[in-house]
Design brief:
Blueprint (H helix, E strand, L loop, with lengths): L1 H20 L8 E5 L5 H9 L4 E4 L2 H8 L10 E4 L8 H4 L5 E5 L2 H14 L3 E6 L13 H12 L4 E7 L6 H21 L8 E3 L6 H6 L4 E4 L1 H4 L3
Parallel strand pairs: 1-2, 1-8, 2-3, 3-4, 4-5, 5-6, 6-7
Helix pairs in contact: 6-7
């Protein structure tokens, strides 16, 4: 149990240090503990060490954890950080605080339709392929700005910001994080309510400090907390 608690403490210290180095308040960055493939017992250990927000990538695994007797009664905030297909929206609607991985209008439209059915507001981020790698999901930067109005019009949804997975090269990653921040600034210029666009989900175990330097508000850290999967 001490290992996860110690890891969390170390990561939080690094987040705070990165924030201060960037001239930001530590409270401006939230740590999402990426718990995919990790058992409920490990999530409970992290919760007992003060971690509340967790990220999952696989719908069935997430649903099983949410209903696990060890976790079901805890005030956890779940984030869905994996690529979300339209046919999976119905399974997670109303069950997560924020969806990070929407990368096409048709998926956002399905999210809107389900949110209307449930009479709730669904909050989400758009995934952007900032690296240009064909193996990665995400809208192209130019597609985001061209299609933004269509996303803004969807009822019962709130676009809260952008998400990316950067290149493994730290120098390239820094540029890609900067690009995502610039895209969010451009998006705010056309948004009906720019005050909603507050989130940049970028940075993982190997590069979250660079992401914080470029404006990340949500960092997704798994390996550095839970160890290798």
């Amino acid at each position: 149990m001490e290992a996860i608690a110690d890891n969390l403490a170390a990561i939080r210290q690094r987040v705070d240090t990165a924030c201060l180095a960037a001239g930001r308040h530590p409270s401006s960055v939230r740590l999402i503990a990426v718990s995919k493939t990790k058992p409920a017992e490990k999530i409970r250990e992290a919760f007992d060490a003060g971690q509340v927000e967790f990220g999952e990538s696989y719908v069935q695994e997430f649903l099983e954890k949410q209903q696990d007797p060890l976790l079901g009664h805890l005030p956890l905030q779940w984030h869905f950080i994996g690529h979300l297909q339209s046919n999976k929206v119905r399974s997670i609607i109303g069950r997560v605080a924020l969806i990070h991985g929407i990368d096409r209008l048709s998926t956002a439209e399905e999210l809107s339709r389900r949110a209307v059915q449930h009479n709730i507001r669904a909050e989400y981020l758009l995934e952007i392929n900032t690296s240009g790698e064909t193996t990665k999901y995400g809208l192209k930067p130019e597609e985001l700005l061209a299609e933004a109005e269509a996303f803004f019009r969807l009822p019962n949804t709130a676009l809260r910001g952008l998400m990316t997975i950067a290149s493994p090269d730290p120098a390239l990653a820094r540029l890609e994080f900067r690009l995502l921040h610039n895209l969010l600034d451009e998006l705010k210029k056309t948004a009906p309510d720019p005050s909603l666009l507050t989130e940049l989900s970028m940075g993982m175990s190997q590069d979250f400090e660079e992401a914080i330097a470029e404006g990340a508000t949500l960092v997704r850290v798994g390996t550095a907390i839970f160890g290798w999967r």
